[in-house]
Specification:
Layout lengths: L8 H6 L10 E8 L9 E7 L20 E6 L2 E6 L4 H14 L5 E5 L7 H11 L5 E5 L4 H7 L5 E6 L2 H4 L5 H10 L4 E8 L5 H12 L7 E5 L11 H12 L5 E3 L3 H5 L3
Parallel strand pairs: 1-3, 2-5, 5-6, 6-7, 7-8, 8-9, 9-10
Antiparallel strand pairs: 1-2, 3-4
Length: about 260
Amino acid sequence: MPRDSWLLAPLQAACYNAVVPPGYLSEIFVSFQGEGAHVGRRHLFVRLAGCNLRCRYCDTPDSLERTPTYTVYSNRGVETRPNPASIGDVVALVAGILRADPPIDAIALTGGEPLTQADFVADFLGAGRFPVPVLLETNGVLPQRLQHVLPLVDIISMDIKPPSNTGERHFWEEHAAFLDLCRGKDVYVKLLVDETTIAEEVERAAALVASAPQLVPAFMQPIVDQGGLPAISAQRLTHLYCVARQRLDSIRVLPQTHKLLGIR
């Protein structure tokens, strides 16, 4: 395929509209990546709507459910578009932003949980063939759906959210299967912690990452409260870091930098 074939993406995507179910989005915007291994790089975020989890501290509650519209923030202003959205419309929109607002280092697929709409994501990426890497941000509990999109993404950011702070059940087996599928990919893990996080769960999460089939960088990410402040003391964070460090050589504490900067 020619290097500039992505410029034809809107035309290529048009043929998908008749056969591919539409998708539900929450918002599209360009900002600096605030979390994980690619923090500080400028990304085009495509936030999908809908999530299979209900974490107590969710920082994007507006994306948990599907809604009649989604919002696009671009250098042309703010625009509201209808849900569900067709493959062709979303590909044309993303391709247009890539052309109009460089430099963009990657497309970040986030949510909600993108893999709840794995078929839409796979067909969107297959139709777009965009010229920048694709980063999938996921809660890492749907390994069977990951297989649909795995050949089409370049970077995978997998969360481990201990049940003591989410209020959800544990997903150790799903996380292990997920990391096994990611072998050979650029993958990293974010381990979310707050004052309620149990040390034994941190130890188990660290052991899980350490047993992955390849070296997986890990980031311990403090959860923030509704006021934007860390929901964990320095003492507790240090203790949990030391617990994880017994299993992992490659782990760093990294807050959500976009929250510190006051940006989307």
